[in-house]
Request: fold
Amino acid sequence: MIKKFIRRILGAASKAGKGQTPVVLGPAQHGIDPANVTANAVRVTHTLQQAGFKAFIVGGAVRDLLLGIKPKDFDVATNATPEQVKRLFRRAFIIGRRFQIVHVMFGQDLIEVTTFRGSATDGAHKDEHGRVLRDNTFGSQQEDAVRRDFTINAMYYDPADQTVLDYHGGMQDMRNKTLRIIGIAEARFREDPVRLLRVVRFAAKLKFKIDPATREPMSVMAPLINNVPIARVFDEMMKLLMSGHALACLRQLRHEGLHHGLLPLLDVVLEQPLGEKFVTLALGNTDERIRQAKPVSPGFLFASLLWHQVLEKWQAYQAAGESPIAALHLAADEVLDDQVDKLALQRRIASDMRDIWAMQPRFERRVGKSPYKLLEHPRLRAGYDFMLLRCASGEIDEELGSWWTDFMDADGSGREALLNKKSEEETNGGAPKKRRRRGGRGRSTNAVPEGTE
Ligand code: ATP
Ligand code: MG
Reply:
């Protein structure tokens, strides 16, 4: 109780940005291996320091370094203004969004340099819920530390003397695997509700527990996410889904009651056995690809998350008499109309999703020219991987997946043999009446040369 009170007082003091002196940790205390810091990050801090400025590695990079991991990217914080930073580097670009930052480029490598930010609490423009609309003031390093989100994200590493400056007990929280917001949780979530999603991402990714005072207001604050500009929510959702721990993140999102309004049907999906299996497999695949540094397509990801909504509507339209392909298009339209705005899905992503879904009934048509036409589809690989997930989740027969695997691997005559085998099976009575009719109508299946249309 007393501890909590003291923390509140300290939190309030730190919010005002007054008199915070950092704990200085030497190499023996923090254990960072300098070999994990890239030469370009050192070059940036060194150049700034040579010009008389302060410069530190900050944020996720420090977290990774403390965990003994080589960070994937480096952020640098400095007291130099963006203009001053830009002048010191040959390829540096000022990027102006909410707050101006500088991208310093070395070939493909990018170091993001941010000027210390001032505390957002005093006199900042806010909306009626307390969300800070403009916080583009520069500040001291102490103020910069106060306005960062979590204690473990508010540490500054200087590669020159190998010290870590710890303003809010981040080191202790790292050791205790605790995610703790800086200051008063409710106020910090009001200032920027995206922090709710960040809690979930870091807790799931780092396998840290959420400090009770940080966690307490989260579910009540959840609706505030709806007031955040949708593009920012989308960026944060993408970070979450591409974190290599998407499944853990979505589970945590649901656990914290934060998925409402973002993926409102996630609950429904995860509660049906087939849906849960499908999403679990899809996200497991994604996580594995990220860990192996393979590319992941956002279209595939969202197509997977929303598939069981599409499936339900697809079946309903078919039951109402639509053909499988027409029914699927109707179902896809309906789901996309509903979700594109909610999730801020860009048009390109929505069109990838539609392509992946629209291919699904076409995999079922294994007669005539159809399979050859499908082979030519520019997104065949994505559609095929998606279909394999449907097999693996138990939604459709595994036989369809293995037939297509064979068909895609086979040469011209192998493909003909597979098609003939299929049409024989169907003539012998295995297939539904409708499909047999279509097969029968098929102009001599084996006359179709590979790759036509
Ligand atoms: P990642 O490994 O995902 O890059 P990160 O902590 O570096 O994790 P970034 O989004 O790159 O996350 O942000 C860099 C740093 O900027 C954070 O560590 C944090 O100190 C600060 N920051 C980012 N977003 C916010 C926010 N919404 N509110 C407060 N501080 C933030
Ligand atoms: Mg980062």
